[in-house]
Design brief:
By secondary structure, the chain is an alpha+beta fold. It has one domain (4-93). Helices cover 24% and strands 37% of the residues. It is built from one helix and four strands, in the order ββββα. It has one helix at 70-94, and strands at residues 9-16, 19-32, 41-50, 57-62. It has a four-stranded antiparallel β-sheet, covered by helices on one side. Strand 1 (9-16) and strand 2 (19-32) form a beta hairpin. The N and C termini lie far apart (64 Å). The model is unreliable at 1-5 (pLDDT under 50).
């Protein structure tokens, strides 16, 4: 029986201040169907597990082309944190709590 441990790929993500940053990536091609369209769509499933903390697992779907490398997909997934964080910070700084919507 093949253990799930051997399905992860050990990848050097980037050079950082303290050396290199490594993660484990599991990549699978999946087909998703919403039940409404005529056929399923092709997606990449990317699961990232941190080396320091195997309990911290992040997963995402990507509709990138079939030829996109695992390293590129892993880097795109890592960038999502910073994109989402910038939106959170912008909302906090803008103080949308007192904004009223006016129609027309």
């Amino acid at each position: 029986m093949l253990s799930y441990l051997y399905l992860f790929v050990f990848i050097e993500m980037a050079k950082v201040e303290k050396g290199e940053m490594y993660v484990e990536i599991l990549h699978r091609h999946v087909w998703l169907w919403n039940g409404k369209e005529a056929k399923a769509r092709y997606w990449h499933l990317i699961i990232r597990r941190e080396i320091e903390d195997h309990k911290e697992i992040k997963y995402s779907l990507s509709n990138a082309s079939k030829e996109t490398s695992i390293l590129t997909l892993a880097k795109m997934q890592a960038q999502l944190y910073w994109i989402e964080r910038s939106f959170q910070n912008a909302n906090l700084n803008a103080d949308w709590t007192n904004t009223k919507y006016v129609n027309g």
